[in-house]
């Protein structure tokens, strides 16, 4: 069996996502591209958190509870950071449009 605590649901990743939104969208971008960026980022962060939780449970089921704890404590943080790096690269390259 797996126990998912409120603290493991990924609220920290949404907090970090919100902080990066505040800092990254302060430039001269159109409102529609900002809205697209926010929607893509929110949905992506949500899906990455679902995948992260699923991976922790699968690792615990396939290996040992210790393996799940190690993955949860160390590698799942790296997954969120990698997601945010990819998200901002993608947003700046393809989504955000500067005002004219």
Describe the secondary structure blueprint for this structure:
Elements (H helix, E strand, L loop, with lengths): L10 H14 L6 H32 L2 H31 L5
Q: How would you describe the overall organization of this protein?
A:
There is one protein chain. The protein is built from 3 helices and no strands. The chain is mostly helical. Helix 1 runs antiparallel to helix 2 (31-62) and helix 2 runs antiparallel to helix 3. The longest helix has 32 residues, at 31-62. It is elongated and about 55 Å long. The model has no long low-confidence stretch (mean pLDDT 95).
For this entry, give a set of tags.
0% strand; 77% helix; elongated; mainly alpha; 100 residues
Task: Offer a quick outline of the entry.
This protein has helices spanning 11-24, 31-62, 65-95.
Q: Indicate the low-confidence ranges by residue numbers.
A: none
Major sheet: size, sense and barrel closure?
A: none
The level of helicity is: over 70%
Q: Determine the structural class based on helices, strands and strand pairing.
A: mainly alpha
Mean pLDDT, as a whole number?
95
Q: What characteristic shape results from the CA principal axes?
A: elongated
The radius of gyration is: 16 Å
Taken in chain order, the helices and strands follow as HHH
Give the total of beta strands.
0
Q: Report the portion of residues in β strands.
A: under 5%
Intertermini distance: 56 Å
Helix count, per DSSP?
Answer: 3
């Amino acid at each position: 069996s797996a126990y998912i605590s409120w603290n493991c649901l990924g609220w920290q990743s949404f907090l970090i996502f919100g902080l990066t939104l505040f800092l990254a969208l302060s430039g001269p971008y159109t409102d529609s591209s900002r809205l697209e960026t926010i929607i893509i980022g929110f949905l992506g962060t949500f899906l990455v958190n679902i995948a992260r939780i699923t991976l922790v449970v699968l690792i615990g089921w396939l290996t040992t509870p210790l393996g799940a704890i190690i993955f949860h404590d160390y590698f799942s943080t790296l997954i969120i950071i990698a997601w945010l790096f990819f998200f901002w690269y993608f947003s700046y390259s393809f989504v955000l449009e500067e005002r004219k």
